[in-house]
Fold each of these.
Amino acid sequence: MIRTKLCTPNISKNIVSRKNIQEKLSLLSQYKLALISAPAGYGKTTAVVSFLETAAVKYAWLSIDEPDNDPVRFWNYIRASISECLKNADVLSGIQINSELVSSNITTDLLINTLNEIAEIFTLVLDDYHLINNETVLRSVEYFIKYMPPNLSVIMISRKEPDYGISKLYSRETAVRLTIKDLAFSTDEATELFAQRGINLRPDDISDLDKRTEGWAAGLVAASISMKESANPREFISSFSGKNYSINEMLENEVYCKWPVEIRGFLVHTAFLDKLSGPLCAMVTGNAKSAELLKVLSETNSFIISLDQEKTWFRYHHLFQEFLLQKLEAENITARHSLLSLSGQWYEENGYIQDSINCYIKAKEYEKAFPLVWNIYLEVAQNGEYSLWRKWIESMPEELIESDIRACTGYSWILSIENQVDKAALWADKALACFERIRGGLDRTEQEFLEANIVLANANVSVFRMDADAALRYYKRVYELAVFTPVFVGEMNPGEPSLLETAYGFRGRLNKAVAVYESTIEDTPRVLGDFSSYLSAVLAECRYERNELKEVYSTLVKSMGRITGLRNPGIIVPCFITLAKLKRVRGDIRGALGIIESGRMILGRGNSLWSYFFDIFTAELYLYKGSAENAESWLHTDRTGIFDMLSVSREFEYIVYAKYLILRNRLDEAMILLARLEDFTKREDRLGSQIEVLCQKAICADRLGEARSSMDALYEALELGSYDGYARTFADLNHPMADLLIKYKSWVKETGNNKHFEYSKKLLKLTKANIKLQNAARLQENAGNPNGKSVKDHLSERESAVLKLMTEELSNQEIADKLFITVRTVKYYNARIFDKLGVNNRLEAIIKARELGL
């Protein structure tokens, strides 16, 4: 990440006062958004920087480039920019970002939620937003602006009109708007501009020049630079190119040609660089005085912008850069490649590996780029930035990739993660072909390790093809190899709270998952190291679903060291949710909440994406207790709708939201959402989720009085669940499911369809046993709290402190501020207090506390 993208461009101290612009931007505090759009060179950035500094506004800055059209890169920079601005720079560090999470708006939701809990008021500036054309980025920014918290405002600086989604905000009068009309220099402002540069012109000369440039700030500045060297300013003005000439012609005739040949060569030979620094330019051009030259160019406003206060990094004005690039393209291709190679070398030596790779690839020096691409594989795969690595590897000649076994298998693995399974299989085959060519020159240890990589690549392909038999054969084969160095496979869960629903859980096919992993689980750690815990977690989820509860616990206990040692959120979240479910089965909701809080602590503050899944499961625990109000505070229902876009990453959230709607008796809305979820889970071939949705649909239809639809949905759920032995999905629904299964008996008699009758009887027995266990736990809990004194004894010191402040009617934020904890932690203590007091909300807790003298 280039930190200078987050720095405010350095502007001249002698700038023209733009009163009209200042007045308009001062309205920003009353609106959510300022849209500043005009062609290049109209002084948009200068106007914004001047306003921010004059008004002493706290702000975060991002200078956008073409590569920022990658959604992951874009939101990584947004996160970094805001972190630079805030006092607590670590508060956003855990917001996970990948393409699926951005496209489904989970990343923006998490960012909004986190910023909403921060007291600081600030502005986010997006400079050169016109360079963004990626649909995913555009839509995610629109969503972010639509729901951003009240302590945040956004200024968008662009050369073009905003897209339709952003324009809608302006049409609702929620944005300040500055266009060419606002930014164009008036005659008085142009007079001041020239006067500051020591050029005194007659009013008619200024009027003429202003008319020719249409108030274009860059044209006026360029004119002032050239005019200083002109013997006849009047003649210069009359010949100055205006709106009838292209920008390139003006830059050619009035700027570029004014520089000495040496400087012109410097400009052209550095034109391909998005960021300029003295050492980098010195490497590329061979000019040892590059740093001084950049400073001179900046101080003379020569279409080069300083990116930091120290004036060490710069960038060309985009139009000027485009102008220079045309000249560079006219030069010998060998010379161009040489420049790219030199810049790649500098980037590599100074640790800018991604920039180095990009330069080497453009220079077609693939032999230099290839080892860097492979060396960064672990980092990229761990962060889920698969598309970036794939883009690099696909820029290489295939014969180069085919000569490296681990590059082939790594490419195969990423292709399978991106559901390009046939292509993944092809590259696994190419890895094998390479192995056969070179195996004679390898010692036994190298042979076994490389073969293990190939076998696991094929196993991975088989898993994604849902071919359990082939996957089992490959896993057995790899465990026969004498592998002493674990094979790195990367993050196996790019963003889901359940591993069972991923490809590695065969999308809910319990029989397949158990068949593949149960017989090989003991050997997995030797080959996969800590990553073997992912497969243990899949097996644990299977065993929970089949009500093999003791086996669930033992499976996770054996893997807990690897789970916590790996510290990957993609394994921590599913495991702790499964452990919390075990507590829930015993009726210990308080214990389940404690397990989830323990998971949060292990995640740390740097993983708010995955804490988001903990939030949703916390909401589900409250729905399990029948407390819709408590669930609501964790579900963020103010931004959730039944017609929202569904995605794999948000499926769990919307299933829980459907449960919330049912509990709130908003049955028509619930049925619409469940119908959409049913179609989605079928289309995505997610068996467990499909069964759960059908169960909820059956419950909802029953409450609507639609008996036939209810039984049809229940029958389909039984049809899907019977083969794999699904149990807990049904039993965990307690009374509503027990009622349905009793009605199912009558339905069987009426229809004569007894296909799943025995299965339904087993489920009914299990569900009733579950209800009995819940009732016993509730009675025991009530027996332990017969009066106020015992309740007080059960409250921890911190819980008592929170309750005291709650009775003083302080908000969660105020309580957090007084106790120096986060709002999320306050919510956690609230939940424990409500549970111990036997109440459902804050008001009931205050009343109960006062009644008991607490």
Amino acid sequence: MRALWLAAPLALLRHAAVFAAVAVAVALAASAASSTPFIRAGVKSAALRAQVKSISALGAGFELNTGGSLGTDVARRSAAAAFGRAHRLPEPPVVASMFPANTVEGNFDVVVMARTAASAHVTHVSGHGDDGVWISEALAKTTGLGTGDILPLTEDPRFTTLPGRTRLRISGVYAALDGDFENPYWSNWVQLIRARNPDAPLPPTFVLVPEQTLLRVARALKQTSVQNTFEFPIDPSNLTYVGAEQLSRTYAQIGNSITSSDGLNCGIGTRSPCRTGSSLSAALGVAEQQVTEVSTTISLLSACGLAIAALIAAAAGVFLVRRRVDEVQLLFARGEAPGSFALRTAVEALLPACIGLAAGFGVAVAALALFAPAGTLDHGTLVAGALDATAAAAVAVVLLALAALTSFPRLPHHAGLARKLLAIPWEVVPLAAVGVLLGLLFSGSALTHDAQGHGHPRLVVFLLPAVAAAGLAGLVARAARRLAARRGTSAPLSLFLVLRRVAAARGIIVAVAVSAATAFGVYAYAQTLSSSLTRTAAEKAFVGNGSDVQGLIDPTERIYKPFPFPATTAQVDSTNIVLRSGQGVVLIAGNPAELAKVLEWGNWPDDPRLQLPKLAHATAPAGVLPVIASRDFPNVSALDDQGVSIPIRVVARAPVPGSLGGWPAVLVDATRLHAVARFHHVKDPGDQAGAVIWARGDPHVIEPALTRSSLRPSYLTTLSFIHSDPSVVASARSYRYLRAIGIACVLLAVTSLLLYLQTRQRGQRLASALLRRMGVQASVDV
């Protein structure tokens, strides 16, 4: 026995099939276990980068606002550059100096600004060159000035009796910034570009000048101080969640450590103390929330993969015993204890388990490096994944040893109990579990809720198909064995031998068949979930975006000059329309004929475009509004619009493009809506109502054309907006991962079947050789 223990670490090298089975089982367990921290890290990094891209590198960076005397402006600019280098901020700052002024003609408020490469980051309407004086399109229209004209500026006459004056030659006119909110260069200046509410006037526009021109103009206008803004952009190329957390803490520490000695006119006692800030912490919060929304799905899929890997590890333990049945029988005859055999089996499995652990962990790391953003593999993520993979490998080895323990022969006094247990069909257990899982599913206990109240399936939802496949496969295998035993006697000789071998296989062939069926069930279920997610995301994209491109516009805007692609506008009102119960309703109003040309829809039922003719030709009494209602719209006969009850007539039900998730919606003819509103004496459009423009075609062609148009749409989105959502991307990645686990399990089950057949053939050859030595004729050797 001592020799067996000494040889145990390398014993499985003599059994390549068993060695491979153990290594693959542990590799699957390690890969499934390490998926949770790896996928979470990947989702965090992807979500964070999406947020940083949304708010721009400048918005997520470090912003410092200060001010001081005109004479020290150049010194403050130099101090800001030195400050960034001293604190190792990722990029050099974008520097802005500014002060207020007025136009002589018309007395319009403006802000004279010298900002790093400002004129290169605006849309040029006319003019050329980046070093001259640039005015906004709005200022050009109100003053009647243009490229080449002279812009006279003065101090605000409200604060001085003898204001200074100066004259600037205009080098160019740029498009108004309030229609260019997507420009990342101005992400930190939205509050100085956009009005606080629709009724408020626009803030003063910027007169963009070089730094030397700003100093000259400030002296001419008798300005004694200027305001400074220093923006240190973030470098998103290798940004990870952990790195962003550290950078956010660094920003806070830097903001608290600024003193007057930094040359920035900051610190206690200064007239213009510094203000610092960064949107990076907000981006981190949004990324964490998006990870929370999908973390339940990730954990459940990982647990499902671990369950499959555990079953395979147990099957590998049974296969280990069956593959070495002669050796096991000899050990039993010599009095080997089952516990000693199981412990030595665990020692024998250590080498292939270590190889499987390295392989499974390596595959998980490679997958993360391939699919996740660069830089996701930080030290903490690797350590967490390695610990989970090691724990899973240890559990797999323990399960393998327990399976070997249960497969080891027992003494006769245990035979009665064993026969009683074996007399109970094992399929009863998984089928009973299916009943329990179905009960939980229909009772609502199969769902859990996260901190945001969103429902997520529990593990029972994912275990249901695997357990059902195992139980049904067991019944099929049992029925097939009995059928083969009864009908095989009349079959041809070759078929008879095959059926005889299948009928005599008993437990091992059933285990292989059940493992294969379970693996196929997991793969099919993952494929179904993935297809359902893709379909749901696509449908939500069509409903939410309406067409290929959607943009927000003012409800008073109209398309006066046709575009080279189908386009239409629609009113969207989600603030003035409610049901009698108080439930809000989204009202979409447009031209049915134009909507039919512009709206997009996939290959799904309930195409809203098919219902538009009913809306266009609907008849109703004066004051009654025909509507196409969403599927969740209640059976009511009136809507409350701005406190007035408006009778409606539902002519059809279909998904309503432009609606909000969870809100009932109606689609109406804009002309009929205007007539009904006039009949009931309500405003159309109502206060705070919005509007969208929908366009159909290539987004790369549509977006520039809409941006240059007089509509000035903001927040342009495409159908990819939903598909690129981090939660959708994370869920799709999770389902792909589970599908890969299912494929691996299928391959392992098929390989196990082939190994089993090879083992049976080897046993048959040994039996045939023994019969020949005993003098049995070859004709009997079947």
Amino acid sequence: MLRAHRRSVGLTQDELATRAGVGVRTVRELERGRATRPQRGTAELLADALGLAAPERVRFLAAARSRPPGSAEVDPAAGWAEFDPPAGRPGSDLAAGSELGPSSWAEFDLADRWQRTTALPPPLPLVGRDEDRRDVASLVAGNDIVALVGLAGVGKTSLALVVAHEAADRFPGGVAGISIANLISPDDILAGAAAVFGVARAADLPERCAGRPTLLVVDSADRAPAATATALGWLRTYTPGLRVLVTSRQPVDLPGVVGWPVAPLEIPPDGDLSDLAELSAYPAVSLFLERLRQVRRHPVEPAEVGVLGELVRRLGGLPLALELAAARGRVLELTEILDRYGHRVLDLGGVRPDGLTLRDGVAASYRLLDPAEQRALQRLAVLAGRWSVELAEEMLGGTAGAVDVEAVLDRLVGLGLVSVRAGGPLRFRLVNVVRDFALERCAEAGHLDDAHARHARVFAELAARTAAELAGPSMSAAVSRLDHLLGDLNVALHHAADADPATALRLAGALTRWWRFRGRDREGRAWLRRLLADPRSTETEPAVRAWARLGAATLAIEHGEGLAELPAARQALEAFSELGDVGGQLAAHGCLSVLWKAVGGYDDARRHGETLLALATRVGRVREIVVAHNNLTWYDIRAGDLAGAARRLATALRLAGQITDTRLQAVVLANMAEVARLDGRYDEAIGLCRQALPLLATVGDPGHRVRARGTVGLALAHAGAAEHADAVRLAMADLGTVADGTRALIGGYVALARAERAHAVKLFSAAAESPRAHRDARDAVEAMVGIVASTDGPDRAAALARLNEICQRTGVVLLPRDVALLDG
């Protein structure tokens, strides 16, 4: 300690002796450990000469007077044996969520060196670490040295303390700990280990630990990694009964050490969680709320729950970030904390006694990387969500020099800069504060635009590959993959739309089916229209522009605006025909068939449907054959040929089964249910929908889910189960406005069954004016039949005339059930 203090103030031994008024030999012998304990007056003269102030002066005098030569000083305030040169102790992993409170050492009786020792600060309650506690305890029981590795503030020390205290019964030789400081030597560490176990020298440790399992906790090994590794190597060689649990920001460079990465706490997923209890189940939220309660009295209000979830997600589950942000709750509301720090989490700091900020902690780990690893981290920081090894390889493939991606990932995971959760390809994610820090470094280096450009190209290519999988057996997995990559898809699309519209158009065009299945049709169409209108995208390949036009038309049909995109769909078909792109032609005919039907061009719709069936049959495209049969079913229903519609759909279901296309099977089942309902086979209709709905829930497709749930409600209403039908109608409110027409139609039948004719007319009229009726003439006819059946007197004749006009214009033939209803 004396030597470290002297060097920190830049004095030679002669200069210190002269300033203190003591002999140079005294200084020399004390530093070499050869002198007996100095007199109190001598120690005070040395402290004065060194300019030591409390608490360093107190610790210096205590070390000089109260411990045997060669042992470490005890810091009663910290609860650790600590080796801390006055050059300055950097902030450790102990503050915020990991902070150690005041504690005192166990009393050591040096005359009884076999006394059981528990020289550790008391543990603080851990949140969300149950699995870590069990796993680390198991590792400690079976390995000589276990290292907990992670970022500053992630909770390594707290975890180590809890594990050590809980394992104390399994270590009859004692449990104790030391905390490492800068400028420390292996001998200092060994002396500290000896001191906390009540022996004078490290050489006594083998006898002290012989036959009695003993546990030593070594905190903050990264402050002196080489010295710690050397000391641990000596301990493993000469004290086989000693187990060591280490905390460090980097792996311990010693063969045989078992590393355990300490990851941030689990955060809630993206999306609105309105229930506080559900949100609090996530460990990161639980810790934040626990710390928030310490600084403010009033609880979180229901209106704050959404803000709470977003704030915790931005903090990334890092305990230090959570606690520093929660401390702001003394003067700021949650909305204010999110507004001020949501996009500059790195600037949180100033609350800890040592003044450590998140930026300091991340910078310390960043400096452990070599230049190539730092460049790789900067490139990977553009990734917004979870990613795979393959995505990392694509992102790093354009960096200068050869990059061993696996080695880089291993290094980043080892330092806690990248977290790994669960299994599967998309298991890697940058800790949020690390991502923010690396993006700053990338911008400073002038590489951020290049990184974003590469990111956009990578995800455009990924989306193009995945688009081919959004049909058939691979559809569910492909949709799920895009769901998980939503954050990166948005980042890529926004950047490319401004900097590289051609790439953005390729990306958007490939996402059409996914947007449709996830009910994002308005958003997707807006992107496609914006990019197609951008003059910078006019030179994009004709096929890319054709698919984008077709995508905009397909999405427009979902929200009843297909007419506006009819010219775009025609242009797409012309482009595919000129290019000889059969797949594009099939898709265009299918889109035009549905689009023309929605806008009332029934003959054109049938023509495109039949062309699709003929072309698909000629080239052997089974999926498109199923689509054609499914679309053409409408014309059988229009003509009143329900038996023909049922046969066509049976063929479609058989073919969809052959190609294992779950979505097509679900859609065909839903249409078979609708045909059964129109034919009066209500139980069969309900049974078919019960088969279709789970499949549709798996793949998404909200439009067909509305149709299938509506068929169940309508079948129940027709069958006389008005109460059950009304329950279905009420439950469909969670589908939003897209289900309003269906809900009105069900409500009309329920009201008619209850003889509430005026109310029934009102509901059937709403159904007749809904987008559902505008897209499908059969629905418009059904709603008008309900209006006529519910109307008496002179108004009935006017309604009947309106019904006849619609039937003549659309060619829809009234079904037996319609006639029966009109006849009362």
Amino acid sequence: MLSDLRYAVRTLAKSRGFTIVTVATLAIGIGANTAIFAAIRAAYLRPLPYPDGDRIVRIWESMGPGWRGSVSEEDLTDWEAQTTTLVDFTAVVNDSFNLAQDSPERIQGQKVTEGFFRLFRVQPALGRTFTADDMQPGQNRAVVLSHGLWRRQFGGDAKIVGKTVELSGKTYTIAGVMPQGFAFPGNPAELWVPHPLEKKQGRGSHYLLVMARLRPGVELAAARADLDAITARLAQAYPDTNTNRGALIMPLRETFVGQMRAITILLVGAVMLVLLIGCVNVANLLLARASGRRGEIAVRMALGASRARLVRQLLTESFVLAALGGAVGILVALWGADALHAAMPAETRSLFPITIDAHVLGFAAGVALLSAFIFGLVPAFQSSRADLAAAVKEGSARATATRSRFKKTLVVCEVAMSVVLLVGSGLLIRSLARFNDVSLGFDPERLLTMKVALPQVRYPKPTDMASFHERVLERLDGLPGVASAAAVNFTPLANENWNGSFEIAGRPKFEPGKQPVTEYLIASPDYFKTIGVPVTRGRGFTRADRDGAPEVCIVNETFVRRYLPDVDPLQQRLVFDRDPIQIVGVVADTRRWGKTRDPVPETFFPAWQGATDTMSIVVRTKGEPMALAAAVRAQVQAVDPGQAVYAVKSMETIIFEAASLRWFETMLFTLFGAIALVLASLGIYGVMTYHVTQRSQEMGIRMALGARAGQIQAMVVREGMTLCAIGLAIGLAGAIALSSLLDSLVFGVGTHDVVSYLAAGAVLAGVALAACWLPARRATRVDPIAALRSS
């Protein structure tokens, strides 16, 4: 074996061009498969970074298929008291805090119940976590810091426990510091404070993110049945608030990776096809190379080498090529893993880090070994046929014809697999184009957004918060480069919302469980003008709509179509939790939840009648938005120097981030399609070049007998395009059969989109024509006289 290995290395070193092309081809296939496996291992196979993490579940309240929402305090309390299948319930409220250090910084944090750290079975690195005493109303002034915040803002002070810190104007005592690496799943929280369940807001207030742990030995199905029984009892006990309300329970891992399952399956199929196409190409190269080694192999056989010995030698060369391809492929996989990790949704990166570990390296070695068998076995047997001994004297036309037929079969397979990838790429590209054409209902150009969170200690009333934002907007209106400015509690694509039910004044009340639902938004007078949403009926908010004036609201067109289709909306009043509120205007719809979701009913309330503590400032600029970020921040801090401004982004950046996964899916699949196209074209080119070389004498005789160059070219091109046509037919049939896998990924086009299929066929046919034409030109340069002399 060592002798075979040394000989293989020497042989491949002499054929540098062949070796480089082969290794590069294999590296792409092995590297892509390894990177995808690393992502799959991170998302589906590696344990979650918590003890028994796969038994942690996330729970929502549900009102039917496709609907899930937050949980009320009362329902959570009843679930915890009545369940027999779940333990360690915890509730979380995402929040942020102004940290009063040398300069104000907005820190992402969470309000959590007592069982939070018990659920994740994590012990603090310093101090303690929360106790029942910390959860008493009025006593909840303890804070637990993340390891990163402790190092960054407090210099890693080992005596930090017991010291105080000011958060949003309130003084908290530092109870503990969490160990390095602990992170709440899906949220970059850097500190945690207690959240007592005071149950003052009623069952109609749903705002808690709830998680729990399955009891030992309990399966998920049993927990679902248990919660279904509990929610049925609550619906009977509290029909006004709990009718038609169930519970949706899902493993924690599934909440993050469930939506990626379809693209994962698709990418696995794509990279496997790329690897197969690469192996087919290498097999063709080996067969072509074997033609130049017929004499060597025949001499070896004449000197007594058995066929098994020759096969072993040729397979050794294949294994050396695969090993080199695997080594370079690992470098490709490292780059690919970084790219995949960067493209993951932000909330999953810390939970599922993509790394190249020993398991991934073992997978790469296995893929390389399997590849060596795939591309090396058949060429080794073909090249070691016994009749090669005759090739020394007579060329063995039969063996040559056999290899030629096999090479053509491989090319047909290459073309067919490439077509499948190209059709998938075409569908995703067309889908992305349709996606980009969808209007969000507002003008995102030159929009700058940022958030300001006011501490309730300094701004205890909604009117105090409104006054702050009014002063800020007045300053921004006079800032050079600002066309208009406004404030709103939730910007489009913020993935945040408030919603609730309502009644329509003068009409019968809705039945329990059938109340209409609308989203609540709080906006300043110039909000619709600033983001470019037209008021289609009535009026927008004015500066007269402030505290003390009659309460008014504005609804969107979806609200009118769904709830007020047959009446004048401007004559209607809505009843929420206080006196009826007059509708004074109707605005056009916006797609607040993204381009793939239809607009939802929305109700806007005037900010000057009462803002909330966290608002977004939206600025329409006359130039590049981010160029004004510092100036806008300065105006906010001129009103209140202690205020931190955070989440500063242009709206175009927000839109791109919202669509980043769709872009990545399309670009990655298109890359695989392009690689397959290149490999297929090289395969066609190689086969036709081999074909021309083998038939050069015949073509010279044809030209000597009067055949024109155009006829020779047409003959070669016709033979190559026949292979392409067969591969196209098989590939298109395969693409149609597999198109259902793309159902959940395409938008605005069908999976049998004719344009995508025709485009894929046309692109591959064009590339194949070029790959055939080059060898065809070479065929016409055969010297007829030389061909006649050698015949």
